[in-house]
Design brief:
Order of helices and strands: EEHHHEEEEEEHEEEHEEEHHHEHHHHH
Structural class: alpha+beta
Distance between the termini: 109 Å
Length: 392
């Protein structure tokens, strides 16, 4: 019998590995532990659900990590893949248990945690393997897509009837184009215990009406976006995290504190030279959700206005969008140059400069010779008309 080794953590608030334990020890805790009464009370609503969940120990089933739970710190696969079933329409009796190592009631008591044996899993093939396994088990329509990630936490639960099959079938890893379950990752659950899909928003671009492929407004639209800097910062970390979190919650009013934390944790790791401590990260999340609950949460507008917006239904790839932006910017620059030249000619000071000529234009005003010569022919009639009274 293979005794799988998994990382354990003090709580979902701490991605620092606390220990590495045999999975059999964790299963024993699920059957009954000193936390079982707390979990039961949280399920019944007699204790704060999110607070209780956030205080319990947890594990990562998919990979073993070096010190800290991040993709970059993966050491090896555990030999398992964890599948989170959070859909109330799922019937556990239809699950092919010959292909399942274990399943048990989730923390909330309404869903299930399902574990399967898989060989050869790496970070690179995790998504495609997950898709293949869930498809073969007939679980595509029931999985919590947001839990389908290499670093997914699993909080301690209570199920005295936990199912364990040491002789379960072992799936093989798959390197293939992701199937439907992976494509569904563009959608997210709105509630930790709900099963309704709703896309997460990271900007408000979809609120701008667009006819055709795209629309242009050089005055610009104010825009709200969850913005991450390209390079990690060493200062103003808290300000950046507060800004990102405020816009995330503003754009997604149904998002839970736990889901907010999961996203902000990734931002913290990628955008901060030294990530802030988990306690501070939770303080940010709790502060923003308090403003949201009080009805006082305001978005933080991005410093640059949005000037070109693409129709979300337009089938344009990144290069095609860049091409549109280059062309529109070139046309706009041309119009600005023409407007500038026209403004100089139209307001010409004849007593001071005499007749209008190209040399006098670029010699006395902040406009390049190249620009004047390029567009002069388009203003020749206007120049001739203005110069005519000067001729005797």
């Amino acid at each position: 019998m293979n005794t799988f080794q998994i990382n354990a953590y003090k709580s979902i608030k701490s991605p620092k590995v606390d220990s590495t334990i045999p999975i059999t020890d964790w299963f024993t805790l699920i059957k009954n532990s000193s936390y079982s009464d707390l979990i039961t009370k949280a399920r019944l609503g007699n204790l704060d659900y999110d607070k209780t969940k956030g205080s319990l120990p947890c594990v990562t089933y998919n990979f073993v990590f070096d010190g800290y739970k991040t993709n970059e710190n993966i050491i090896t696969s555990t030999g398992l893949i964890y599948i989170d079933i959070d859909n109330p329409t799922f019937d556990i009796n239809k699950l092919d248990t010959s292909k399942v190592h274990s399943y048990y009631r989730s923390f909330g008591g309404k869903g299930y945690a399902v574990l399967v044996k898989v060989s050869g899993v790496t970070l690179n093939n995790f998504d495609s393997t997950y898709a293949s396994v869930t498809n073969e088990l007939g679980l595509i329509e029931y999985v919590d897509i947001q839990a389908a990630k290499a670093t997914q936490f699993n909080v301690l639960s209570f199920d005295s009837n936990i199912f364990i099959n040491d002789n379960a079938y072992t799936f093989s890893s798959v390197v293939a184009p992701p199937s439907m379950v992976i494509r569904k990752k563009e959608k997210a659950y709105t509630l930790d215990r709900g099963a309704e899909y709703k896309p997460l928003r990271f900007d408000d671009a979809n609120e701008i009406p667009v006819e055709g492929l795209y629309t242009v407004n050089w005055d610009g639209w104010d825009n709200i976006k969850c913005f991450m800097l390209r390079n990690p910062i060493g200062m103003n970390r808290n300000k950046m995290l507060l800004s990102y979190c405020a816009n995330l919650v503003y754009l997604n009013p149904d998002i839970t504190p736990k889901k907010t934390y999961d996203i902000l944790e990734t931002v913290n790791q990628k955008s901060c030279e030294t990530p802030v401590e988990d306690r501070q990260l939770w303080r940010v999340v709790e502060s923003i959700h308090k403003y949201h609950k009080d009805g006082t949460l305001k978005p933080i507008y991005f410093r640059k206005k949005r000037k070109i917006v693409f129709n979300p239904t337009a089938k344009l790839n990144k290069d095609e969008k860049l091409g549109v932006c280059r062309n529109e910017n070139a046309k706009h620059k041309t119009e600005l140059s023409k407007d500038k030249l026209y403004g100089i000619i139209e307001s010409w000071d004849f007593p001071k400069y005499g007749s209008v000529t190209q040399r006098k234009v670029y010699g006395n005003f902040p406009i390049s010779k190249k620009t004047v010569e390029k567009y002069w022919s388009q203003f020749r009639a206007l120049v001739d008309m203005l110069n005519r009274p000067m001729k005797s």
